[in-house]
Amino acid sequence: MDLAAWVRVFSLLTAAFSLPSNGISVDQAYSRIPGRGSIEERAALEELYNSAGGHGWRRSDGWMTAMDLCDWFGVQCDNSTASEPAHIRSFSLYDNLLEGTIPEALSALSHVEYFALSTNKLSGTLPATLTANFSYVKYFDLRYNLISGSIPTSVGFMTSLNHLVLSNNAFQGANLPIDRMSKLAYLDISANQLTASVPGVVCHWKNLTYCALNGKYHTNRFTNIPTCATLPPTNCIT
């Protein structure tokens, strides 16, 4: 660690441990030292913990403690530098008994590449600001939840995606902003209540190996599915 980094750490420590005189405990002060992972990312995960019943999760190792953010259960980070903290690159709380809503604050995970909150009991809507900031994400999975409302237009901003799974929720409406997701290899939006028109560009996605537009009970009521989407090589399940 170079001199500038040591000065930064010393400043953080000095500021943090001067706080107890203002009525904040030493533990609380220490928890505000960012370590690896940005302050904004830590605050975002703390908000998720509070909004999605963190006290009842199957696992929450390290959460809401002074432990390095990158060592919290479900979190993986890249490497930090002297001038830049580590950022969360992988975030997965699959099948972890989350119950509540997805906070807008998770948009702070703007460097994430793998994002999975599948197989839980998350409800409410999908915040538009969340996916608007996910320009690096390649894997996005919210299957088997209770999320409702329309699919935000900002989902279409995730143009680096190769894996998009929104199946088995309660998404509704005519918005299906997947036109620009030409890198998709896996698409599953089945078992919702969508009334959108499936864009014909899906027939030209060379990487697409799995496409599920409807499930067993055909709850989606698409206004149009291009014929080419049901034929090889696309072979969408309709």
Mean pLDDT, all residues: 88
Percent range for β-strand residues: 15-25%
Count of separate DSSP helical elements: 4
List segments where confidence is low: pLDDT < 50 over at least 5 consecutive residues. Answer: 3-34
SS class: alpha/beta
Number of strands: 12
Helix content range: 10-25%
SSE string: HHHEEEEEHEEEEEEE
The backbone outline, from C-alpha atoms, is globular
Distance between the termini: 56 Å
Report the sheet with the most strands, covering strand number, pairing sense and barrel closure. Answer: 7 strands, mixed
Fold and architecture overview:
This protein is an alpha/beta fold. It is built from 4 helices and 12 strands. The chain has helices at 3-17, 26-31, 39-51, 128-132; strands at residues 75-77, 88-92, 99-101, 114-116, 121-123, 139-141, 148-149, 163-165, 170-173, 186-188, 193-194, 210-212. Strands 1-2-4-6-8-10-12 form a 7-stranded mixed β-sheet, with no helix packed on it. Strands 7-9-11 form a 3-stranded parallel β-sheet, with no helix packed on it. The radius of gyration is 21 Å and the shape is globular. 32% of the residues are buried.
Any key phrases for this structure?
single chain, 238 residues, alpha/beta, 3-stranded parallel sheet, 4 helices, 16% helix, globular, disordered N terminus
